[in-house]
Amino acid sequence: MTGRILRIELRRSVAVGFALLSLVVGTALLLSATGLFAGRWMQLAIATRTMLVVLWPLTLAAGAWLGRRDARARVVELFASTARPRWQRVLPAAVALAATVVTGYVLMFLIGTAWVVPSSRYFPVTALAVVAVGAVSLVAAGWLGMAAGRAMPRLITAPALAVLGILVVGLLPDYVSSRNLVDPAADPDPAALLLNPAYGGSLHDFQTVAARVNLTQLLWLAALAGTGLLLAAAASRRSVAVAVLPAVLGAGLAVPFLPAGGYDAAAVADPGAVEPVCDDDGPQVCVARVHAALLPDVTGPARRVLAMMAAKLPDAPTRAIETSRVPDSGRAVRAGVSVRHAADTVVFDSPTIGSTGHAEFDDDFLSQLLEAPWRQECRDGRDDIDAYLFRLVAADWLAGQPLTPQDWWNPEERARAERAHQILTGLPEPEQRRRMAAARDAALACRPGDLLPILTTGTP
Description:
This protein is α/β, with parallel strands linked by helices. It contains 19 helices and ten strands. Keywords: Membrane, Transmembrane, Transmembrane helix.
């Protein structure tokens, strides 16, 4: 009997229609930015979670619309007079809504895999956990919406809940996180920020979401879904009070287990993502495992720059490897590449990844390859302006081309760079090589402040 009622709900209720709407909206938003996840499973999982900023309020409104169905048909008193318990009438509609919204969410993820499977060589299992958390959150949204629709069966309820969902899921977390941008001395983001079903943080390709964060979010959202279902089926004030307990207990247990610091603390290093994948048919070129599809694209430019180094630098580096450092974090993921690389190695950041999952080269990538001999992954990862100016001069010297002015230079910086380039190119070629080799030794020893003085005067 229950199965037959469920099939009727799927055929005649709005559950399927709302699920199709969320699938179309979510997929359109997801595919508008395929470059953010192409070729990378974890980035696809995070992108689908980000879509919850729109899908969660939409599902909340869908539940409210479905919840007011009895009142809209004016059969509330009729059903209340029957001997059948209320939960038996609510359950088929709740299951139908949950099944359809989860199916739509999973289909959106599967559509996104068309931009990942052809070029991906690394699959982190935690990506499935991130997707599972998003699916459970949609069930919670639908059931909470049903409870609100039954409690307040008015036309305004569904759109009001959609607006409230956007405020709570989308705008409020951004407001909390923006405090540190305005006030650097502010406390870290609270752990409660991670109760948000949408993932509002950034995640580097070398990172993953901590397992305890996924598990705690899953338990919290399951408790929230339980509260929504119990509220939708509640027939008395006592049952309403009992229905709230799962959400209260879930939040009380979840917050202590979530890390303080919000999304920054939730993102942890993924050693498997940075395991080197190398091409040894010539000077060795390596990329991180998560970027293995980029290896054929990177090998040619990297070997051309290695050849330039061999022609101009004494004891030139003989291999190029992608850095394992997460930008702006000062941390490196220790898997195949140490924090400070050897003298025979140059490191480079990943090039821009296009919508096909392959590299899209630009001037910045080629410039950083040319600057790589005078870079070192020092502990603090910071440079002064003199080090930047030196490397720009050094890159043009290595390429054998005139100095290339930069848009960000002010008149003083431009004058200093031009003077350094004139001094360098005005020296005999053996002295040029000696000074650039000495500057390379200073860079490898993490003395960026010595680079420009060595170029202009020959001494640190």
